[in-house]
Amino acid sequence: MPTSLSLPFDLPFRLDLDSRSLLVLTASLVAAVPAIYMCTAGAVRNRFPELLEKRVCLLIAHPDDEAMFFAPTVLALARPETGNHVKILCLSSGNSEGLGEVRKKELVQSGLALGLRDESDVFVVDNPQDPEHPERLVYTNNLFGSEPKLGTAWQAMTTAHKSQMVWFRYLWLGFSRYMLVNDLRLEKVDEEN
């Protein structure tokens, strides 16, 4: 028996869907949207150079930033075939709720899940007198990953940062572009200064 789909706005036509048609439509959208997104991300990603045999330090402000914002970058740079040695430098233990030690351990787990070689490749600056000074300067050079590894990025966030998985983090996982792609910005450095 068809049911009328009620929308908060008027359509120029009547939309009658039975539950099976609605299920097929929903499943099609759930499958099509990520597929289109990953295909277009791949086309953009191929325009950027790949770093090989480099030492790379990712500078982040808080534990979980590596998974929430830079997972595609870390996954691409830490692939074994690139020969890169990736390290993460975190400027805060994220101790605002007394979870600093837990969040440090989660950062290490996440880094390893994203492809870092060893626990010693994660370093957290823990200055109790100045944990998040506003005048700190962060400079990043982000890269697109060579292939989206959404499952690994989600795993790094959900399993390694359990203390941070409140309801809105799940929305972030589902809707944030940073889980699939990061932006590249080439900066010229004046070596005389």
TrEMBL record:
Listed EC numbers: 3.5.1.89
Superkingdom, taxonomy of origin: Eukaryota
Enzyme type, top EC level: hydrolase
Gene Ontology annotations for the cellular component aspect, listed alphabetically: endoplasmic reticulum; membrane
InterPro entries tied to this protein: GlcNAc_PI_deacetylase-related, LmbE-like_dom_sf
UniProt keyword annotations, A-Z: Membrane, Transmembrane, Transmembrane helix
A single MF term (Gene Ontology): N-acetylglucosaminylphosphatidylinositol deacetylase activity
Transmembrane segments: 20-44
Pfam family of the protein (one): PIG-L
One BP term from GO: GPI anchor biosynthetic process
Recorded family membership: Belongs to the PIGL family.
Record-given protein name: N-acetylglucosaminylphosphatidylinositol deacetylase
Source organism (scientific name): Trichoderma longibrachiatum ATCC 18648
